[in-house]
Specification:
Blueprint: H1 2-15, H2 20-35, H3 40-51, H4 58-71, H5 74-86, H6 92-108, H7 111-128, H8 133-144, H9 154-163, H10 167-173, H11 175-192, H12 206-231, H13 237-255, H14 261-294, H15 297-304, H16 312-327, H17 332-349, H18 354-367, H19 376-385, H20 389-412, H21 415-424
InterPro entries: DctM, TRAP_DctM
Subcellular location: Cell inner membrane
Function: Part of the tripartite ATP-independent periplasmic (TRAP) transport system.
């Protein structure tokens, strides 16, 4: 009955168009009334405590770094480097998109920011060279979701804060799975684009490639600084957000000089607006998280999946299928905030490593960004490409299948996550 009331109070208002943040508070209040615990002061206290977290300070800084990256020329130089390196091969612009997505993901940590950059910079090139619009848009959308997987990742930060898991370990654990998804997209693109008669850019000379590398050098140094700094304990993930923001501002204003001081205000405002949305969701989710614990919703869920508790693989498959379904109706941030406090006790009881589960969880939530009707990345690409959602979904399907295959390979073979993270963690 507790689970029914919680879900009804959450999904009912959402179906009526109530913003997710307010639906989260309503679901918490409904549980409080059912349990006879209603107190407005408890609601207010949990909202304030939900946003009062030092690790969450990384979120605004990484979001600011993403805005600066797109405005200050870092994204454009990364795409230019990828174009110079692999743009001339058959289907080269698709490989450029995947290569650029991997690098951009290590700069911003946001799939939406990467989708906006890739869509604006690469989609016109792909259409001009003769690629099918739906297929090109589908690839760009699918490549953008690497953003929350390869560190730094806002998704990992939220999961780590809510679940009490080491964010540094999550960052390091996401590197190899992110590269696996990139490899799967390359193979899929090679298959689906082999019959396209697209116009290829000319093969660039060694001098042009060297120039593209030199031009993008300062942008490429940012992920190196973050990964090395985290591995050797030079700074925490929160401090890494500050480093990313300050470094991207310095490079954009002093070295590349593409971000004039007059434009700084607009960049800060854009980052502040996105931060406000994320942080308000986090604060409101704290009410539901507290009530979920008090009402022992995880205990009820554990009772439902008790037959699977002795089989970690079967339990993970069941949870992944559930999250895929949830991801079609809910955006990534609220899914993390709602599902983490529910699933974490079950995961620990089953003896599953929370870091390993976190990688699977964030990959699954990232895939949800390209599944309709809510898919945020799909909406961004639709806006850039002027394609309808139906047409874009046709182009996304092959890449979506490839990413789901990678996800379930990681479920079946945990060592694909655990072994690489032990390398990076040394």
């Amino acid at each position: 009955m507790t689970v029914t009331i919680f879900l009804g109070a959450l999904l009912g208002p959402m179906a009526l168009g109530v913003p997710i943040a307010f639906a989260l508070i309503l679901s918490g209040v409904a549980l409080m009334l059912y349990l006879g615990l209603f107190d407005a002061q408890i609601v207010a206290q949990n909202v304030l405590n939900g946003a009062d977290s030092f690790p969450l300070m990384a979120v605004p800084f990484f979001l600011l770094a993403g805005e600066v990256m797109n405005t200050g020329g870092l994204s454009r130089r990364i795409v230019a480097l990828a174009l110079a390196m692999v743009g001339h091969i058959r289907g080269g612009l698709g490989f450029v998109a995947i290569f650029a997505a991997c690098i951009l993901s290590s700069l911003s940590g946001s799939a939406v920011a990467d989708a906006a950059a890739l869509g604006a910079l690469l989609l016109p090139m792909m259409l001009k060279s003769g690629h099918d619009p739906a297929r090109a848009g589908g690839l760009l959308a699918s490549a953008s979701i690497i953003g929350p997987i390869i560190p730094p990742s806002i998704g990992f930060i939220l999961y780590g804060v809510v679940g009490g898991v080491s964010i540094t370990k999550l960052f390091l654990a996401g590197i190899f799975p992110g590269l696996m998804i990139a490899a799967a997209l390359c193979i899929t693109w090679l298959i689906v684009a082999r019959k396209e008669q697209s116009e290829l850019p000319p093969r660039e000379s060694g001098a042009v490639r060297l120039k593209a590398f030199v031009d993008s050098f300062w942008a490429l140094m940012l992920p190196v600084i973050i990964i090395v700094g985290l591995k050797f304990g030079v700074f925490t993930p929160t401090e890494a957000g500050v480093v990313a923001a300050v470094y991207s501002l310095f490079v954009s204003m002093v070295i590349y000089r593409e971000l004039p001081p007059a434009q700084l205000f607009h960049v800060f405002v854009a980052a502040a607006k996105i931060t406000a949305v994320v942080m308000f969701l986090v604060a409101c989710a704290a009410v539901s998280a507290w009530l979920i614990t008090v009402a022992d919703v995880p205990g009820a869920l554990a009772a439902l999946v008790e037959p699977l508790m002795d089989n970690q693989t079967a339990l993970l498959v069941a949870i992944m299928v559930l999250i895929v379904v949830v991801g079609t109706a809910m955006d990534m941030t609220p899914t993390i905030l709602i599902m983490t406090p529910v699933l974490m006790p079950v995961i620990k009881q089953a003896g599953i490593d929370p870091v390993y589960f976190g990688v699977l969880f964030i990959i699954n939530n990232s895939i949800g960004l390209i599944t309709p009707p809510v898919g945020t990345v799909l909406n961004v690409i639709c806006g850039v490409s002027k394609l309808s959602m139906e047409d874009l979904m046709k182009g996304v399907v092959p890449f979506l299948i490839a990413e789901l295959i990678v996800l379930f390979l990681l479920v079946l073979f945990p060592q694909l996550v655990t072994v690489p993270v032990s390398w990076f963690g040394r």
